[in-house]
Design goal:
By secondary structure, this protein is mostly helical. It has 9 helices and no strands. The chain starts with a helix and ends with a helix. One of its GO terms (cellular component) is membrane. It holds the Pfam family EamA.
Length: 182
Protein backbone atom coordinates (compact mmCIF):
# COMPACT_ATOMS: atom_id res chain seq x y z
CA UNK A 1 0.00 0.00 0.00
CA UNK A 2 2.92 2.36 0.45
CA UNK A 3 3.41 2.14 -3.30
CA UNK A 4 0.09 3.92 -3.80
CA UNK A 5 2.28 7.00 -3.24
CA UNK A 6 2.49 7.93 -6.95
CA UNK A 7 -1.32 8.12 -7.11
CA UNK A 8 -1.35 10.53 -4.17
CA UNK A 9 1.47 12.58 -5.73
CA UNK A 10 -0.68 13.05 -8.85
CA UNK A 11 -3.73 13.86 -6.73
CA UNK A 12 -1.88 16.44 -4.60
CA UNK A 13 -0.19 18.01 -7.63
CA UNK A 14 -3.59 18.38 -9.33
CA UNK A 15 -5.11 19.89 -6.16
CA UNK A 16 -2.23 22.39 -6.07
CA UNK A 17 -2.91 23.37 -9.68
CA UNK A 18 -0.23 21.45 -11.59
CA UNK A 19 -1.02 20.22 -15.08
CA UNK A 20 -0.50 16.48 -15.05
CA UNK A 21 -0.26 14.81 -18.46
CA UNK A 22 -2.92 12.17 -19.11
CA UNK A 23 -0.15 9.81 -20.19
CA UNK A 24 1.50 10.13 -16.75
CA UNK A 25 -1.80 9.44 -15.00
CA UNK A 26 -2.45 6.36 -17.16
CA UNK A 27 1.11 5.12 -16.58
CA UNK A 28 0.90 5.48 -12.80
CA UNK A 29 -2.49 3.79 -12.63
CA UNK A 30 -1.21 0.95 -14.82
CA UNK A 31 1.92 0.63 -12.65
CA UNK A 32 -0.04 0.46 -9.41
CA UNK A 33 -2.50 -2.03 -10.94
CA UNK A 34 0.46 -4.18 -11.98
CA UNK A 35 1.81 -4.15 -8.44
CA UNK A 36 -1.63 -4.98 -7.10
CA UNK A 37 -1.75 -7.98 -9.42
CA UNK A 38 1.70 -9.11 -8.33
CA UNK A 39 0.78 -9.12 -4.64
CA UNK A 40 -0.23 -12.65 -3.84
CA UNK A 41 -1.18 -12.30 -0.19
CA UNK A 42 -2.87 -9.15 0.99
CA UNK A 43 -5.81 -8.63 3.25
CA UNK A 44 -7.23 -5.45 4.70
CA UNK A 45 -5.81 -5.14 8.19
CA UNK A 46 -4.18 -2.53 10.42
CA UNK A 47 -0.79 -3.00 8.73
CA UNK A 48 -2.31 -2.22 5.33
CA UNK A 49 -3.84 0.97 6.75
CA UNK A 50 -0.48 2.03 8.20
CA UNK A 51 1.17 1.38 4.82
CA UNK A 52 -1.55 3.44 3.11
CA UNK A 53 -0.91 6.31 5.53
CA UNK A 54 2.79 5.90 4.73
CA UNK A 55 2.02 6.26 1.03
CA UNK A 56 0.03 9.43 1.68
CA UNK A 57 2.71 10.99 3.90
CA UNK A 58 5.44 10.02 1.41
CA UNK A 59 3.42 11.71 -1.35
CA UNK A 60 2.99 14.87 0.73
CA UNK A 61 6.74 15.00 1.38
CA UNK A 62 7.52 14.39 -2.29
CA UNK A 63 5.25 17.18 -3.50
CA UNK A 64 6.47 19.56 -0.77
CA UNK A 65 10.10 18.88 -1.66
CA UNK A 66 9.51 19.30 -5.40
CA UNK A 67 7.78 22.64 -4.85
CA UNK A 68 9.78 24.16 -1.97
CA UNK A 69 13.13 22.49 -1.34
CA UNK A 70 14.41 21.47 -4.78
CA UNK A 71 17.33 23.89 -4.68
CA UNK A 72 18.36 23.12 -1.08
CA UNK A 73 21.46 21.17 -0.13
CA UNK A 74 20.72 17.43 -0.29
CA UNK A 75 23.18 16.59 2.51
CA UNK A 76 21.40 19.05 4.82
CA UNK A 77 18.00 17.64 3.88
CA UNK A 78 19.30 14.11 4.41
CA UNK A 79 20.59 14.98 7.88
CA UNK A 80 17.26 16.58 8.78
CA UNK A 81 15.29 13.56 7.55
CA UNK A 82 17.52 11.24 9.57
CA UNK A 83 17.19 13.32 12.73
CA UNK A 84 13.43 13.58 12.23
CA UNK A 85 12.93 9.86 11.65
CA UNK A 86 15.20 8.58 14.45
CA UNK A 87 12.89 9.34 17.42
CA UNK A 88 9.87 8.00 15.55
CA UNK A 89 11.72 4.81 14.63
CA UNK A 90 12.98 4.32 18.18
CA UNK A 91 9.50 4.88 19.61
CA UNK A 92 7.80 2.28 17.42
CA UNK A 93 10.52 -0.39 17.37
CA UNK A 94 10.04 -2.98 20.11
CA UNK A 95 13.72 -3.71 20.73
CA UNK A 96 13.31 -7.09 22.41
CA UNK A 97 11.20 -8.46 19.55
CA UNK A 98 13.27 -7.74 16.46
CA UNK A 99 16.86 -8.26 17.53
CA UNK A 100 19.25 -8.60 20.42
CA UNK A 101 21.69 -5.74 20.88
CA UNK A 102 25.33 -6.70 20.57
CA UNK A 103 28.27 -4.54 19.48
CA UNK A 104 28.15 -6.19 16.04
CA UNK A 105 24.40 -5.56 15.74
CA UNK A 106 24.90 -1.92 16.67
CA UNK A 107 27.67 -1.46 14.08
CA UNK A 108 25.55 -3.16 11.41
CA UNK A 109 22.52 -0.99 12.25
CA UNK A 110 24.57 2.20 12.06
CA UNK A 111 26.15 1.08 8.79
CA UNK A 112 22.75 0.21 7.34
CA UNK A 113 21.30 3.52 8.50
CA UNK A 114 24.15 5.59 7.14
CA UNK A 115 24.55 3.77 3.84
CA UNK A 116 20.97 2.71 3.20
CA UNK A 117 19.15 5.78 4.39
CA UNK A 118 21.70 8.37 3.30
CA UNK A 119 22.12 6.93 -0.18
CA UNK A 120 18.40 6.33 -0.48
CA UNK A 121 17.56 9.96 0.32
CA UNK A 122 20.33 11.26 -1.96
CA UNK A 123 19.01 9.19 -4.87
CA UNK A 124 15.41 10.11 -4.07
CA UNK A 125 15.98 13.87 -3.78
CA UNK A 126 18.09 13.89 -6.94
CA UNK A 127 15.39 11.95 -8.83
CA UNK A 128 12.74 14.48 -7.79
CA UNK A 129 15.03 17.38 -8.70
CA UNK A 130 15.90 15.96 -12.13
CA UNK A 131 12.64 14.24 -13.13
CA UNK A 132 9.93 15.98 -11.13
CA UNK A 133 7.66 14.56 -8.46
CA UNK A 134 5.41 12.45 -10.69
CA UNK A 135 8.10 10.69 -12.71
CA UNK A 136 10.26 10.11 -9.62
CA UNK A 137 7.33 8.67 -7.70
CA UNK A 138 6.52 6.36 -10.61
CA UNK A 139 10.12 5.15 -10.43
CA UNK A 140 9.52 4.08 -6.84
CA UNK A 141 7.31 1.32 -8.25
CA UNK A 142 10.54 -0.42 -9.31
CA UNK A 143 11.32 -1.37 -5.70
CA UNK A 144 8.99 -4.40 -5.43
CA UNK A 145 10.11 -5.59 -8.87
CA UNK A 146 13.74 -5.29 -7.78
CA UNK A 147 12.85 -7.37 -4.71
CA UNK A 148 11.52 -10.17 -6.94
CA UNK A 149 14.63 -10.08 -9.12
CA UNK A 150 17.05 -9.97 -6.18
CA UNK A 151 15.17 -12.76 -4.39
CA UNK A 152 15.56 -14.88 -7.50
CA UNK A 153 19.25 -14.05 -7.88
CA UNK A 154 20.18 -14.50 -4.21
CA UNK A 155 17.99 -17.33 -2.94
CA UNK A 156 16.54 -18.79 -6.10
CA UNK A 157 12.92 -17.78 -5.32
CA UNK A 158 11.13 -18.00 -8.65
CA UNK A 159 8.38 -15.37 -9.00
CA UNK A 160 4.88 -16.73 -9.55
CA UNK A 161 3.06 -16.10 -12.82
CA UNK A 162 1.03 -13.33 -11.14
CA UNK A 163 4.17 -11.68 -9.78
CA UNK A 164 5.86 -11.82 -13.18
CA UNK A 165 2.79 -10.57 -15.06
CA UNK A 166 2.18 -7.82 -12.50
CA UNK A 167 5.83 -6.77 -12.71
CA UNK A 168 5.63 -6.58 -16.51
CA UNK A 169 2.49 -4.44 -16.33
CA UNK A 170 4.16 -2.21 -13.74
CA UNK A 171 7.22 -1.78 -15.96
CA UNK A 172 4.94 -0.77 -18.84
CA UNK A 173 3.22 1.78 -16.59
CA UNK A 174 6.54 3.21 -15.42
CA UNK A 175 7.73 3.49 -19.03
CA UNK A 176 4.54 5.30 -20.05
CA UNK A 177 4.92 7.73 -17.13
CA UNK A 178 8.61 8.55 -17.49
CA UNK A 179 8.28 9.08 -21.25
CA UNK A 180 5.35 11.48 -20.84
CA UNK A 181 5.93 15.15 -21.56
CA UNK A 182 5.14 18.01 -19.23
Amino acid sequence: MIYTQPIFVILFERILGAKVPTRAIVGVILGVLGLTLSITSASLDFGILIALMGGISWAIGTVYYSRNLKSDDIAKLNAFMSLFSLPITLAITPLDFYFVFTPITLVLLITLGVLGQALGYIFWFNAIREMGSIKASAGSLLVPIAAYVLSFLTIGAVPSFGEALGSFITLCGIFITVTSRK
